[in-house]
Structure formats: C-alpha cells, structure tokens
Amino acid sequence: MKVLQFPLARITFGFILGILFPYYLKPEPKIIFALLFISIITFIFFYFLTKKYSTQNTYFGISTYVLSFFIGATTLIIHTDYYQKSNYTHYRSIFEKPHLISLTLREKLKNSNFNVRYIAIINHIDQAESSGRILLNIRKDSLNHEFEIGTQLRIKGTLYENSPPSNPNQFDYSNYLENKQIYAQLYADTDEISVSPEIDKNIWYYTSRLRTKIIHSLEKSNFHKTELNVAVALIMGQQQDISPEIIRDYQYAGAVHILSVSGLHIGFILLFVTFILKPLPNTKRGSFIKLIIILASLSLFGLIAGLAPSVVRSVVMFSFVAIGSHLRRSVNIYHTLLVSMLLILLFQPSFLFDVGFQLSYIALFFIIWLQPLLASIWSPKYKVSKYIWDILTVSFAAQIGTLPLSIYYFHQFPGLFFVTNLIIIPLLSIVMILGVLVMVLAAFGYVPLFLSKPLEWSIFYLNKIINSIASLEQFIIQNIPFNFYFLISFYLIIISTVIWFKKPSFNKLVMVLISTIVLQISYIKNGSDVKNQKEWIVFNSKKNTLITERNGEKVTVYANDSILKTCQKNNILTAYLVGNFSTLKTKKRIENTAFFNGKKILILDSLGIYPKNIKPDILLLTQSPKINLDRLFQSIQPKIVIADASNYKTVQKYWKATCYKQKIPFHATGEKGFYKLN
Fold first, then answer.
1. What gap in Å lies between CA 422 and CA 618, rounded to an integer?
2. CA distance 228 to 438
C-alpha cells in the first residue's frame, strides 16, 4: 500500500496514536511532557548522528515517529479544557450548590422539546476568573426572544455534571459532550438571568449576525420556511431548524451527508469562485490575487458554516489544492489529505473523535484510492453514460469505505444510496450554484425573485425525491448488531481485498484469506461470549416498569400490557437487543416474584400486595406503592432496594432516607440509571 510508504503518513499515524494515548489511558500530564522532552533530545541526537553517519537513518526515522507520538499526546492535553487549572471543573463545590456564573453565548444549538440551547463560555464564577464550555438550557416558556451570540449573561444556578447513559447500549451523550469540551449543563428561566448591555463582538458574533441577516432577507422575500431551513443547512451547514421528519428522510435515503457542509459543498464553492475570477489575468500578480480571494472566500464560508469538523477539513484541504494550483504544481492528493488532517488535529485534536470527521476522511480516502479501480471496470463511450458511471463509482467507493463505520455508529444501511446519489447530485449542483448566489446577495439585503424562486423550487423537488426514496422502507436495513471487533475485521477484509484487486499476487491473496479468518474468529468469539451471558435488568423507563431477562441470545421482557403491545418499537429495548446481538423471544406480564441466578426478587406495584413469609434478596418498588418501608423491612429484610422510574420522586426520597437509616443499599434508576443483575 503506497500511501503508507509516505513519511508524512507514518508521522500522521504516530501523531494520531499519540492523541489516542492520553484520551483513553489518562496518564499524568507531567509524565507526558517529560517524555516529550526526552523524545526531542533523542530526535536532535539522531538527526546530527545521521548527518555524520548515513547508516543511522533507521534510528532517526524511529525517533521521528516517537516524537510525533508524544507531540500528539501533548497536543491533546494542551487543548483539553479539563487539564487547564482555570477550568470550572476544578472549582470547589461547583456541582454541589448554586453559584453566580458569568458567561458569554458562543453558539446556538438545535432546541430540545422544552429548552432553547446554547454553548456558552464561562468567564467568572462568584467573581473569580474561570474558563470552560457549558451547555446552557433556557426554558422555552420563559423566553420571549432568543439571545444574540456574544451576549453576556449572569445566572445564579447549579451546574449539572454530564450523566452517563441511563440505559444499556444507549447513545452516550455525556461522552459526546466531553469530546466537545463540555463537561456540564446549566438550566435556567429568564427571570434568573441578568443580561449585560455589552456584547462580546468577536468573530463568532459577526458570523452569527451575517447568518441571521441572510436568513431574515430570505424570510422577507417569502421564501417558504421548510425549503429555507434546508437551504440554510445545505449552504451554511446550520441544521438547527430542520424538522426531524426531513432529517429522517435524508437518513433513510442515504443522503444525510449533504445536510452537513463537507468536501462536496466546498468543492462547489471553489469552482464557483474560480469561475467568477476568470477575467483576472493569469500573470504572477493576478494569480496571487486570485489565490488570496479564493482562500479568503473558503475561510469566510467555513466561519459562516460554524467551523464544524467536516467544514474545517474541507476548507483546509481545498486551500492546499488552491495553493498547489497557484504554484503550478501537480498536487499529490494523498499529501493534501494528510497535511490537512495533521493541521486540523494539531489545532483541534478533539475532532479525531467526531463521527463526521471520521466519516469525511474515510469517504474521501476511498474515493481517491478505490474509485479509479471501480471506474476501470467499464469505459463508457458517451458523455452521459460516463457522467452516470462516474457518479456511481464515486458513490460506491465512498459507501464501501464508510459502510463499516456507519453501521458501527448508526446500526443501519440505506440500500438505495446509489439511486439517491445518482438523482440528487445533478440537482444538488443547481441548488449549490443558485444557493451561493442568493446567499451572497441576501448578505447585502437583496434577494432577486428570479434567483430565489428557482432555488426554492429546486429544494422543494429535492425534498420530494428524498421523501419518495425514503418511503421505500423495505430497502432500509435497520438495527444491525455490530461491535468494535467486527469494525476492525471488516476494514481488514475491505483494505486487503482492494490491495489484491489493484495488483493481484499470491501473498496479497493470503492476506485476504487471513482477514476472512479474522472476521470468522470475531464472529465465533462474539457468538460464544453472548451465548454464555445471563443478566436481569431493570430499565430506567419514564413512568413505566420495564424488565428483561437475557439468557444468551434469547430475551424475555416483563412489562404491563400497554408496553408489551408496543415493545417492538420501544427505543430502549431495541438499543438493548441490538447492542447484545439478541432477539426478543418471550413477552410476559410482571408478577410479584421473580427468580434469577439463585436470587429471589420481590416486585411491589401500586397495590402493595406481596406474599407473606418471603425473604427476598432484592426488593423492586414500582408504581409508587403505599407502604410503610420500616415495617416492611422488619418482615422481609431485603439485601438491596431498587426503585424504577415509575415511582414519584418525592416518594423515592423518603425510601432513600429509610434505606440509609436501615443501612440497606438503595438504587433509584432515575438517579443512577438501570440496574443489572448477572
């Protein structure tokens, strides 16, 4: 694989490994900085030794890769807010009681059902200087109008630390926020907020104002709201106002990537700006002016799009393409890809853990690496058939590359992705050209009808096509069980197979066969592990009781009749089944007693009726039974008490205090998450 022969590829690989090292192992920062210093000294030593004795090249190469590893590790530590002494997580009692918090709004997020949400930067806590990002939630009912980015607020409130998933195999929102350097959330009503008259007018403020002006100009031109929201996502990468139904349609059709500004969009911008600048002469001075305008346009577009990982990656990469074109050099696309990745991670190492960033780079790499091989299968004679074939091969190359990672994260596969791309890419080119023109003019308060209406109609038909494809649900494969070992095994097979097809040889065929054996071993081991597992789980299901018993791949669910009727569509249960490679075999109503793995379980519901003379190991309280817990303990003496989310919170507080007094462990699923017995 020639890509790995590039020294830059090995350095980037070492740098990425360095980022992963402190992320997962959490070493002491002082040790990492000490090792960085040692690696720098070693690198300098071997550098001069290599200049004197050329035979020492191997040691110099190793020292280079070791240095890149520790640069990656220190880069993550330096850019991780948690390691900064001023970060609010180090403030005494920050998560225990209310504090006066001064903050600045940085970014507007998609609203939840009950709250308007912002990313905010903390400036002071109780008059002491502090730093760090939080997620600010302001109750919708109390907010008359949304705040402007850059607004400075003072709020008396308690920060809530990110909580882990409350049910097994659910999306880890806590980890997602931490990858964005957000370690806490703050909830407030407007009457608890003091607004400063001063606004922090930084780059985020001006780009937000520009986006707002563009959107208001389009609204005044009677641009339909649904199409406007999609246009803002396609052109400016802002998805906050798109309806969940439209996002779901794009997901099912395999086109959700076009709603996130990426290489496709930045490529259109580069071509558009280059076309506009054609009248400028190709002299040395004219070429330099073109380059500056192109770089400024791409950077401005990246800022307007909110500097998402996919946007940053695309802007940096196409900037290098533009620079290479200006220098009249043929740009090695692999070097461009590696340099853009290295630069982005050098300034934002946390992007490595962003799903969009991972999918973007893998898709682009496979388009560059695999698409020529697919295109060589057939050479069309006509331009139309060649255009269609190119779209198909690019689409297949990207999909093959991202398939394992997409299934790993989303557990679904849109079977009609190739049809979607074949239809929408020509239409998307029209939307992008019109969209860029309209957005630029809207920034100056002018929206010509002869441009805005075709843009609106194009997006309307784009949504219709996507909806029609998404409605063919029989082609959407959902709830695919897939773990990390399968992810690695599938990539080994894909990469080894492509290498073999590019230049067949016996050794490469052996690698394909070994990769296939590795996948089979992963499958057998996973099946064996699942088969030997047994567990009994009380889920954290709001206002309901949901219990499962799993023996290997077979799951029995215990619930009331209303839950049993709809359990096939229950997201909590579905996530559990998919995550454990299991199937739902039996549905049963909850009874007063249960037995699992030698443990006796007593379940009390709202009636509070239970068998006499029972000595349970576990007492499960559901539906807020009216009982005297002290008196109950005298007769049954359980080893642990569990209260699920079907109970009133006020009653749970009383139970918790009673258990504490009796020295009996108490587990409330609403507070600690699901309870597992295995």
1. 58
2. 12
